Amino acid sequence: MNTKQAGHQRILVVLPHPDDESFVASGTLAKYIEGGAIVTFACLTLGEMGRNMGIPPFANRVTLPAIRKLELEASCNAIGIQDLRMLGFHDKMIEFEDKELLDSQIMTLVKELNPSLVITFYPGYSVHPDHDATGAAVIRTIGRLPSADRPLVYCSAFASNHEQMIGKADVTVDVTAFLNRKMASIQAHRSQFQAAELVGNRELSDEEIRTRFGTEQFWTYRFDESL
Amino acid sequence: MQLINPQDIQIRIDQLTGQDLFIHLELTTGAYANHLDSTRHPASAFISNAGIRYTNGSISGTGPYRVGLKTEQGWVYAEGLTHVDETETERLIMAGHDSQGKLVVALQLSRDKFE
């Protein structure tokens, strides 16, 4: 079914918002971590411009960054992520950031950690401008390495037209054995997870959880093709 | 956050009149507006830590509330405010939340820069 789940000892995850890790890769990461991998999560922002403030609202624009920082740490604990780096960029502004600054920070992490796998968003097919800009920065940075030195890059995509443009995901990870960790990671984001489009404020049945969250999908980025 | 009591807000607005303040003003439909409903027009704007000094300010409406601040050169306006941070004594931190609890508007005033 999927031949690309070889062992990875060093994984770098680069995503812009606290809670992206929960939905994109928490099950996959938990699975690799159980297999002995060390995971670094570089979270570009604190999601300080998020619209979900809890139901009823317990956060505001002033208190949200500190709240989401704690939520992010709790989520990483739930997954088992050993190394969390908060890069301190401003939520919503990634596409306007100095590209050299962004790329150099990612390059520094790649050089320091020498990961065999990098997980990010698929640029152009990830809906939120921060997602697309983060993915683009990772692809630019890794693309600068000699091809023999490039880690595998798994991208997450969910724009409405994504399958039409980039085909079906080539990596499907069954994470049903790690759903407890995944749901704990999602629920660690207390200010976010009650939102109707995420989990909502009712208990999901085990069957609903398996259907919605039981697999994670990725596209292996092909650097040699201009997609 | 607590639901706005307009009388309390008016007192707070009056206390900040005529002072050099920092303002955060924001309106947003969210980055997923169009993804979740293709008929929706995504729109957001915010201005963070702009300097402002107003000569008159008031809160109006029956909820959600409107606030207008008259400056020496013009106006600042926000509609849709529902909540205030009751724990803030120096700063005025207001927000408007929609029926799903999501923030749609924020209006914040402070003597010190917002982080």
Helix and strand arrangement:
The complex is a heterodimer of chains A (227) and B (115).
Chain A: E1 10-15, H1 20-34, E2 38-43, H2 64-79, E3 83-86, H3 99-113, E4 117-121, H4 129-143, E5 152-156, H5 162-166, E6 171-174, H6 179-188, H7 206-213, E7 215-220
Parallel strand pairs in A: 1-2, 1-4, 2-3, 4-5
Antiparallel strand pairs in A: 5-7, 6-7
Helix pairs in contact in A: 1-6, 2-6, 3-4
Chain B: E1 2-3, H1 6-15, E2 21-28, H2 33-36, E3 44-52, E4 54-60, E5 65-71, E6 75-81, E7 83-84, E8 92-97, E9 103-110
Antiparallel strand pairs in B: 1-7, 2-3, 2-9, 4-5, 5-6, 7-8, 8-9
Report on the structure:
Chain A has 7 helices and 7 strands, in the order βαβαβαβαβαβααβ. Chain A is of the alpha/beta class and 227 residues long. In chain A, strands 3-2-1-4-5-7-6 form a 7-stranded mixed beta sheet, with helices on both faces. In chain A, helix 4 (129-143) links the parallel strand 4 and strand 5. In chain A, helix 1 packs antiparallel against helix 6 (179-188). Chain A is globular, with a radius of gyration of 17 Å. The two termini of chain A are 24 Å apart. The mean pLDDT of chain A is 93. In chain B, strands 1-7-8-9-2-3 form a 6-stranded antiparallel beta sheet, covered by helices on one side. A 3-stranded antiparallel beta sheet of chain B has the order 4-5-6. Chain B has 2 helices and 9 strands, in the order βαβαβββββββ. Chain B has helices spanning 6-15, 33-36, and strands spanning 2-3, 21-28, 44-52, 54-60, 65-71, 75-81, 83-84, 92-97, 103-110. The A-B interface holds A 49-63, 65, 92, 127-130, 159-160, 194-197 and B 1, 24, 26, 28, 30-32, 35-36, 38, 44, 46, 83, 85, 88, 91, 93, 95, 97, 100-104, 106, 108, 114-115.
Short description:
Helix content of chain A is 37%, strand content 16%. Chain A has a seven-stranded mixed β-sheet, sandwiched between helices. In chain A, helix 2 runs antiparallel to helix 6 and helix 3 packs across helix 4.
